[in-house]
Amino acid sequence: MLLVLAVTLTAFGVGCSDRTETTAEADGTEPAGINKEVTMPIEAVTTTVVDPGAEPRSPLRRTLEPGISQQVTLSTDHHIEQQINQQALRDISPPAITIPITAQSGNDGVELTLGNVTSPDPTLAKALLPADGSHVGFDVSDLGAITALKLAPAPATSDSGRAALEQAFYQAVYQSIAFPNEAVGVGAVWTVRQQVSGSVPLEQVTTCTLTARDGNQLAIQLNVVQTPKSTVWHLPNEAGQLEIVDYLMHGTGTIAVDLGLPLPVSGSVQVGGNQTYRDPRSSVTLRQTLRTEVQWGA
After folding, report:
1. Who's near 271: CB < 8 A, 6+ residues apart?
2. Domain residue spans in the chain?
3. What residues pair up with 251 in beta bridges, in sequence order?
4. Could you report the per-residue pLDDT of 53-107, keeping only the tens digit for each?
5. How many CB atoms lie within 10 A of CB 213?
6. Given a cut of 50, is residue 22 above it in pLDDT?
7. Kind and range of the H or E element at 269?
8. Selection from 172, 171, 169, 177 nearest residue 145 by Cα
């Protein structure tokens, strides 16, 4: 059971979605998702204005005409340390990756073309070489919320490369910004409430503060809190269940947004904390310390 705990919790800590792909390794056929676009629905958001801010106030809306292009770089770094009972603390962090992106606005969302994806880990860096030219799509609501994530890695991309890209964009999507429906001014505060899909469903509440505005240029401060929606985690593949003893995840960040461009211009959000799980059948306890950083830049 110790191994099951370590493996399943590691997979959960990486932050993968509930999307599954049928594999056919037993008969040697190609997995169903390989070389095909995979769409992951993203949970809806609810925005609530806490303080409308100073006058003058106006709605925050992206003014995207089809064909608008933007170049930006996405970097993600996910750090995980875990300890089973009194065993030695282990660092099981996946490698960081950096993704150059050319984004183009469309009628229903944003289409991304990936450049040369890199990682400080030599093995992953090699696995990501064929990902150059891969495509990613975001379906976006009128308020800027991402409603679906579409991944179409280049055909030669390996399973490990595909998994790293999926993890990076999944993290980026859940640290993105949705705007309130009401008109707001500088100093405005609003909350974005969203369920984060995963093996343990989480409720994420992001408090956004509009700290500055110059025309289409916005500076937004973020405060993120995640809490589990259950006291029990049902492990994948009917492997049992774990009690959630404690779960504390909190983060902060700042994002620069140009309402005339499809993606953030710059900024970073870091979310981290501690989690403790217990197997009720064996009293095995597993503790994890996690930190995830999503960064946008030139």
Report:
1. 175, 224, 226, 249, 250, 251, 291, 292
2. 2-16+32-297
3. 224, 271
4. 999 999 999 888 888 999 999 999 999 999 999 999 999 999 999 999 999 998 7
5. 22
6. no
7. strand 266-278
8. 177
Amino acid at 97: I
Stated pTM of the model: 0.86
Per-residue model confidence as pLDDT tens digits over 262-294: 999 999 999 999 999 999 888 899 999 999 999
Determine the Cα–Cα distance for residues 113 and 266; give it in Å rounded to an integer.
18
> Can you tell me the distance from the alpha carbon of 171 to that of 94, in angstroms, rounded to the nearest whole number?
13
Q: 183: helix, coil or strand?
A: coil
d(CA 94, CA 2): 20
Fold of 2-16+32-297: Lipovitellin-phosvitin complex; beta-sheet shell regions (2.30.230)
Q: What is the mean pLDDT of the chain?
A: 87
pLDDT at 215: 94
Peptide bond into 56 cis (omega under 30): yes
